Protein backbone atom coordinates (compact mmCIF):
# COMPACT_ATOMS: atom_id res chain seq x y z
CA UNK A 1 0.00 0.00 0.00
CA UNK A 2 1.27 3.45 -0.91
CA UNK A 3 1.62 5.72 2.10
CA UNK A 4 0.08 9.17 2.29
CA UNK A 5 2.08 12.38 2.58
CA UNK A 6 2.63 14.74 5.49
CA UNK A 7 1.99 18.31 4.35
CA UNK A 8 3.53 21.12 6.41
CA UNK A 9 0.91 23.85 6.05
CA UNK A 10 1.75 27.51 6.82
CA UNK A 11 -0.60 29.63 8.90
CA UNK A 12 -0.92 33.40 8.94
CA UNK A 13 0.93 35.48 11.53
CA UNK A 14 -2.35 36.94 12.77
CA UNK A 15 -3.95 38.56 9.74
CA UNK A 16 -7.43 37.34 8.76
CA UNK A 17 -6.77 38.41 5.16
CA UNK A 18 -5.07 35.21 4.02
CA UNK A 19 -4.87 36.43 0.42
CA UNK A 20 -2.04 38.75 1.49
CA UNK A 21 0.11 36.09 3.15
CA UNK A 22 -0.86 32.53 2.16
CA UNK A 23 -0.26 31.16 -1.38
CA UNK A 24 -3.50 30.28 -3.24
CA UNK A 25 -2.48 26.65 -3.75
CA UNK A 26 -2.88 26.04 -0.01
CA UNK A 27 -6.63 25.95 -0.70
CA UNK A 28 -6.13 23.06 -3.11
CA UNK A 29 -4.05 21.14 -0.59
CA UNK A 30 -6.40 21.48 2.40
CA UNK A 31 -9.34 20.27 0.33
CA UNK A 32 -7.59 16.94 -0.25
CA UNK A 33 -6.85 16.32 3.45
CA UNK A 34 -9.14 14.99 6.19
CA UNK A 35 -6.59 14.46 8.99
CA UNK A 36 -4.80 17.35 10.72
CA UNK A 37 -2.19 17.62 13.46
CA UNK A 38 -2.56 20.99 15.19
CA UNK A 39 -1.59 22.91 18.34
CA UNK A 40 -5.12 24.12 19.02
CA UNK A 41 -8.25 22.77 17.35
CA UNK A 42 -10.24 26.03 17.54
CA UNK A 43 -7.57 28.20 15.92
CA UNK A 44 -6.79 25.54 13.32
CA UNK A 45 -10.48 25.30 12.45
CA UNK A 46 -10.65 29.08 12.07
CA UNK A 47 -7.66 29.01 9.72
CA UNK A 48 -9.14 26.22 7.60
CA UNK A 49 -12.41 28.16 7.24
CA UNK A 50 -10.56 31.32 6.20
CA UNK A 51 -8.45 29.29 3.78
CA UNK A 52 -11.60 28.01 2.08
CA UNK A 53 -11.95 24.39 3.12
CA UNK A 54 -15.04 22.83 1.56
CA UNK A 55 -15.62 19.89 3.89
CA UNK A 56 -17.63 20.36 7.09
CA UNK A 57 -15.22 20.54 10.03
CA UNK A 58 -17.09 17.72 11.77
CA UNK A 59 -15.89 15.38 9.01
CA UNK A 60 -12.24 16.13 9.77
CA UNK A 61 -10.02 14.44 12.34
CA UNK A 62 -7.80 16.61 14.54
CA UNK A 63 -4.87 15.45 16.63
CA UNK A 64 -3.43 17.89 19.19
CA UNK A 65 0.33 18.43 19.35
CA UNK A 66 1.66 21.15 21.62
CA UNK A 67 4.53 21.85 24.00
CA UNK A 68 2.91 19.62 26.64
CA UNK A 69 2.56 16.60 24.35
CA UNK A 70 4.67 13.57 25.25
CA UNK A 71 6.22 11.22 22.73
CA UNK A 72 3.83 8.50 23.91
CA UNK A 73 0.87 10.78 23.08
CA UNK A 74 1.70 11.14 19.39
CA UNK A 75 2.73 7.63 18.36
CA UNK A 76 -0.59 7.00 16.55
CA UNK A 77 -0.87 10.41 14.85
CA UNK A 78 0.51 9.12 11.54
CA UNK A 79 -1.40 5.82 11.45
CA UNK A 80 -3.82 7.18 8.83
CA UNK A 81 -0.89 8.47 6.79
CA UNK A 82 0.63 4.98 6.79
CA UNK A 83 -2.71 3.68 5.52
CA UNK A 84 -2.48 5.97 2.48
CA UNK A 85 -4.29 9.10 3.68
CA UNK A 86 -2.58 12.48 3.49
CA UNK A 87 -2.16 14.44 6.75
CA UNK A 88 -1.66 18.17 7.32
CA UNK A 89 0.48 19.69 10.08
CA UNK A 90 -0.58 23.26 10.95
CA UNK A 91 1.25 25.65 13.25
CA UNK A 92 -0.50 28.22 15.45
CA UNK A 93 1.22 30.93 13.41
CA UNK A 94 3.69 30.96 10.55
CA UNK A 95 5.60 27.90 9.44
CA UNK A 96 5.32 24.50 11.14
CA UNK A 97 8.41 23.29 13.02
CA UNK A 98 10.04 26.74 13.24
CA UNK A 99 9.90 27.73 16.94
CA UNK A 100 7.10 25.17 17.03
CA UNK A 101 6.65 21.61 18.44
CA UNK A 102 5.89 20.07 15.04
CA UNK A 103 9.41 18.76 14.45
CA UNK A 104 8.63 15.62 16.50
CA UNK A 105 5.98 14.60 13.96
CA UNK A 106 8.24 15.34 10.99
CA UNK A 107 11.02 13.26 12.54
CA UNK A 108 8.57 10.40 13.05
CA UNK A 109 7.37 10.71 9.44
CA UNK A 110 10.92 10.32 8.15
CA UNK A 111 11.45 7.29 10.38
CA UNK A 112 8.30 5.70 8.96
CA UNK A 113 9.24 6.43 5.35
CA UNK A 114 6.44 8.97 4.88
CA UNK A 115 7.05 11.73 2.34
CA UNK A 116 7.23 15.18 3.96
CA UNK A 117 6.01 18.09 1.81
CA UNK A 118 6.90 21.59 3.13
CA UNK A 119 4.69 24.38 1.77
CA UNK A 120 5.83 28.00 1.57
CA UNK A 121 4.33 30.75 3.70
CA UNK A 122 5.17 33.55 6.14
CA UNK A 123 7.92 33.20 8.74
CA UNK A 124 8.13 36.05 11.25
CA UNK A 125 11.76 35.14 11.94
CA UNK A 126 12.88 35.51 8.33
CA UNK A 127 10.65 38.52 7.65
CA UNK A 128 12.17 40.30 10.65
CA UNK A 129 15.68 39.47 9.46
CA UNK A 130 14.84 40.70 5.95
CA UNK A 131 13.57 44.01 7.33
CA UNK A 132 16.37 44.54 9.85
CA UNK A 133 19.14 45.83 7.62
CA UNK A 134 21.73 43.70 9.44
CA UNK A 135 23.68 40.81 7.95
CA UNK A 136 21.68 37.80 6.82
CA UNK A 137 24.76 35.79 5.84
CA UNK A 138 25.40 34.38 9.31
CA UNK A 139 22.57 34.33 11.82
CA UNK A 140 21.07 32.27 14.64
CA UNK A 141 17.58 32.03 16.05
CA UNK A 142 17.95 31.41 19.78
CA UNK A 143 14.32 31.37 20.91
CA UNK A 144 13.68 32.88 24.33
CA UNK A 145 16.23 34.56 26.59
CA UNK A 146 16.35 33.66 30.32
CA UNK A 147 13.54 35.04 32.47
CA UNK A 148 15.80 35.68 35.47
CA UNK A 149 17.02 39.27 35.23
CA UNK A 150 20.67 38.56 36.08
CA UNK A 151 20.86 35.56 33.74
CA UNK A 152 19.16 37.55 30.99
CA UNK A 153 21.63 40.44 31.35
CA UNK A 154 24.53 37.99 31.14
CA UNK A 155 23.03 36.39 28.02
CA UNK A 156 22.51 39.77 26.33
CA UNK A 157 26.12 40.77 27.00
CA UNK A 158 27.22 37.46 25.52
CA UNK A 159 25.15 38.10 22.39
CA UNK A 160 26.81 41.49 21.96
CA UNK A 161 30.24 39.86 22.18
CA UNK A 162 29.25 37.16 19.67
CA UNK A 163 28.01 39.77 17.20
CA UNK A 164 31.23 41.77 17.46
CA UNK A 165 33.62 38.80 17.40
CA UNK A 166 31.89 36.50 14.90
CA UNK A 167 29.56 38.82 13.00
CA UNK A 168 26.66 36.48 13.72
CA UNK A 169 23.24 38.14 13.80
CA UNK A 170 21.09 37.07 16.77
CA UNK A 171 17.30 36.64 16.51
CA UNK A 172 15.06 35.99 19.50
CA UNK A 173 11.52 36.33 20.83
CA UNK A 174 9.75 36.96 24.12
CA UNK A 175 6.36 36.34 25.69
CA UNK A 176 4.39 39.49 24.75
CA UNK A 177 3.78 40.57 28.35
CA UNK A 178 7.57 40.74 28.89
CA UNK A 179 8.43 42.66 25.69
CA UNK A 180 9.09 46.01 27.32
CA UNK A 181 11.15 44.54 30.15
CA UNK A 182 13.31 42.69 27.64
CA UNK A 183 13.78 45.83 25.55
CA UNK A 184 14.95 47.75 28.62
CA UNK A 185 17.46 45.00 29.41
CA UNK A 186 18.76 44.94 25.84
CA UNK A 187 19.33 48.69 25.86
CA UNK A 188 21.06 48.49 29.26
CA UNK A 189 23.40 45.61 28.45
CA UNK A 190 24.42 45.99 24.79
CA UNK A 191 27.28 47.97 23.18
CA UNK A 192 26.09 51.30 21.77
CA UNK A 193 27.10 50.52 18.18
CA UNK A 194 25.15 47.24 17.96
CA UNK A 195 22.06 47.47 15.73
CA UNK A 196 18.72 46.38 17.17
CA UNK A 197 15.70 45.82 14.94
CA UNK A 198 12.28 45.29 16.48
CA UNK A 199 9.53 43.86 14.24
CA UNK A 200 6.01 44.05 15.65
CA UNK A 201 2.79 42.57 14.22
CA UNK A 202 4.44 41.48 10.97
CA UNK A 203 2.13 41.18 7.91
CA UNK A 204 -0.73 42.89 9.78
CA UNK A 205 -2.12 46.39 9.26
CA UNK A 206 -0.52 47.43 12.56
CA UNK A 207 2.93 46.24 11.46
CA UNK A 208 5.77 48.35 12.84
CA UNK A 209 9.53 47.96 12.38
CA UNK A 210 11.90 50.00 14.54
CA UNK A 211 15.63 49.83 13.77
CA UNK A 212 18.66 51.70 15.02
CA UNK A 213 21.84 51.42 17.04
CA UNK A 214 21.50 50.82 20.76
CA UNK A 215 22.83 54.33 21.36
CA UNK A 216 20.17 55.79 19.05
CA UNK A 217 17.28 53.75 20.47
CA UNK A 218 18.16 54.74 24.03
CA UNK A 219 17.13 58.28 23.11
CA UNK A 220 13.70 57.20 21.85
CA UNK A 221 10.56 56.38 23.79
CA UNK A 222 9.51 52.91 22.64
CA UNK A 223 6.51 51.05 24.03
CA UNK A 224 5.98 47.59 22.56
CA UNK A 225 3.02 46.47 24.63
CA UNK A 226 1.69 42.93 24.56
CA UNK A 227 2.03 42.28 20.83
CA UNK A 228 4.01 39.61 18.93
CA UNK A 229 7.56 40.93 18.48
CA UNK A 230 10.76 39.61 16.90
CA UNK A 231 14.08 41.04 18.10
CA UNK A 232 17.08 41.07 15.75
CA UNK A 233 20.55 42.18 16.89
CA UNK A 234 23.51 42.54 14.56
CA UNK A 235 25.83 44.94 12.83
Write a structural description:
It is a single chain. About 30% of the residues lie in helices and about 20% in strands. By secondary structure, it is of the alpha/beta class. It folds into 2 domains: about 5-120, Cobalt-precorrin-4 Transmethylase, domain 1 (3-Layer(aba) Sandwich), CATH 3.40.1010.10; about 125-235, Tetrapyrrole methylase, C-terminal domain (Methyltransferase, Cobalt-precorrin-4 Transmethylase, Domain 2, 2-Layer Sandwich), CATH 3.30.950.10. The longest helix is centred in the last third of the chain and has 18 residues, at about 150-165. The termini are far apart. The model has no long low-confidence stretch (mean pLDDT about 95).
| H-E string | EHEHEHEHEHEHEHEEHE
Number of domains: 2
Q: Termini, distance in Å?
A: 53 Å
Work out the radius of gyration: 20 Å
Portion of residues in beta strands equals 15-25%
CATH class of the largest domain: Alpha Beta
Q: How many separate helices?
A: 8
The CATH topology of the largest domain turns out to be: Cobalt-precorrin-4 Transmethylase, domain 1
Main structural class: alpha/beta
Q: Mind summarizing the main beta sheet?
A: 5 strands, parallel
What is the spatial order of strands in the main beta sheet?
A: 3-2-4-1-5
Tell me, what's the shape? Answer: elongated
Poorly predicted tracts of residues: none
Fourth-level CATH superfamily of the largest domain? Tetrapyrrole methylase, N-terminal domain
Amino acid sequence: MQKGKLYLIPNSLGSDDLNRVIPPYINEVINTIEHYIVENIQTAAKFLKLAGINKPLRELTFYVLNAKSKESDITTYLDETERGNDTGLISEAGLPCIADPGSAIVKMAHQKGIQVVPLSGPSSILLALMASGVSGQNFAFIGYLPIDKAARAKKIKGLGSKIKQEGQTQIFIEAPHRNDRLLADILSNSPGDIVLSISKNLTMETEEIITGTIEHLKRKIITLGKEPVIFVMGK
